[in-house]
Amino acid sequence: MSKTLLLVDDEADARAIATLALNLKTDWTILQAGSGQEALNISAEQSPDLILLDMMMPEMDGRTTLKKLKADPKTQTIPVILVTAKVQPLAQSQIDPADVVTVFVKPFRPLELADEIRAALNW
């Protein structure tokens, strides 16, 4: 059965590159959100198998989006992988490590993204 992944990043180019790379390596359905609010809406409606969530976004950042995802019964069990350009311990980010599967650091290698996701989730 095919997986559904939600890519959340305010940069359209980053979403496009990741989507292209994942489409080359998988048969997953790739949904895209350009903001935290859009991610909350799509997640509640579509219930993806995974959310790849950028930390640095205007309006609603990744930390706030993650808190709202985990507070909503419709989305609280969806696994989340954070994507960030800043390398720092989760505790310093005020993020509960139990709320995320892992953290990917930008820039990542697009063609290795599918394998990294599979390894993180044992898919």
UniProtKB/TrEMBL annotation:
Gene3D superfamilies: 3.40.50.2300. InterPro entries: Bact_response_regulator (IPR050595), CheY-like_superfamily (IPR011006), Sig_transdc_resp-reg_receiver (IPR001789). Residues 4-121 form the Response regulatory domain. Pfam families: Response_reg. GO terms for biological process: phosphorelay signal transduction system. It comes from the Bacteria. This is Response regulator. The modification 4-aspartylphosphate is found at residue 54. Keywords: Phosphoprotein.
